[in-house]
Amino acid sequence: MDDPAMMAIAAASGAGKTILLVPSMHDDLFDDAVTRDLLEKIRSMGYKVLVSPSEEGRRKQPSPSNIVRFAAAAINQNLPNRANVAVIYGATESPIDPVRVISNKSSGKTGMQISDYLERMGHDVTRISGAVEASGVEPDIIARTPQEMVDVVRDVMVESAPDVWIVAAAVLDFQPAHASTEKLSSSETPAPVALEPAPRLIESIRSSDPDARIISFKLESGIGVAELISRAKSHMGRCHSDAVVANLLENLDGSGPRAHLVTSDDVDEIYDLEHLCTSIESIVSGWME
User: Fold this and answer.
1) Mean of the per-residue pLDDT values of the chain
2) Cα atoms found within 13 Å of the Cα of residue 225, Cβ hemisphere only
3) 250-274 b/e (C-beta count within 10 Å ≥ 16 → b)
4) pLDDT tens digits for 69-122?
5) Can you name the residues that pair with 18 across neighbouring β-strands?
6) Mean pLDDT over residues 38-49, rounded?
7) Residues 246-268 pLDDT 10s
8) What is the domain partition of the chain in residue ranges?
9) Long-range contacts formed by 221-228: CB under 8 A, 24+ apart
10) Overall pTM surpassing 0.85 (yes/no)
11) CATH code for the part of the protein at 84-173+199-287
């Protein structure tokens, strides 16, 4: 202990305090066997270690928001009723030919913010991402097609058995029945693309784990709130989800309510994305009581 920083760390360790380590260095130092052994020993002592991905040959200091999320998660994981949560977000796609796909529109922003908030509140979060436009924390798993998402769900169930699934992904309802193995010529009139039902993600989760809690999303357009809620309840019954976030496309960036959170007992009007995050966290922690 030849400097104040080491003395503070030693005193905190002896007192049983949570210690967070955020190392930054060049890859040649980080990849050295001695460094790896030291980090492993530190983790075995109960220290929390946050390492950024390699960029330009270095492990740079993570962004302040990533460090704050890391620190908040370490503190709040001691709160009661914390859950193992899988959050699925982003768009899916299915190939028409080797260079063209059919897809749907989703930035992934909602799922990203929900996963970040749940992690900051101490829940153990697994991020499963389709195609996204927004930037944020790197997902744990990337799944671009409906079938890839179904396959990933099965793998995650085996590895971590989530208590709660939040399905904010825009999963294709239909996909090309027969993708061409060669690029379709742009100089010829294309033949019609036959569609078939895509694998049903929520139904796959429910059939694989009947006891899991599921929060699904329902997006509609051009209808009133009463009809939106009615369709959300029908969706909840059809998919056997435990709650539905019902959205009107025109209200996502408009002046109306951001969404309606529909459960079997209640319907809550959601004002904005922050309100949605806190409401979902309240439901998840309530389920774990």
Assistant:
1) 92
2) 12
3) ebbeeeebbbbbbbeeeebebeeee
4) 999 999 999 999 999 999 999 999 999 999 999 998 888 999 999 999 999 999
5) none
6) 92
7) 999 888 776 678 899 999 889 99
8) 84-173+199-287
9) 221/248, 221/249, 221/250, 222/250, 223/248, 225/260, 228/260
10) yes
11) 3.40.50.10300
Q: Are strands 48-49 and 20-21 parallel, antiparallel or unpaired?
A: parallel
Residue 241, both tokens: 């989800």
Determine the pLDDT at residue 253.
Answer: 72
- Closest C-alpha to 145, from 123, 165, 162, 169: 169
**Per-residue pLDDT band at 190 (split at 50, 70, 90):** confident
CA–CA separation, 72 vs 9, rounded Å?
19
Six token digits for residue 73: 């998660």
Pair of tokens at residue 137: 């924390």
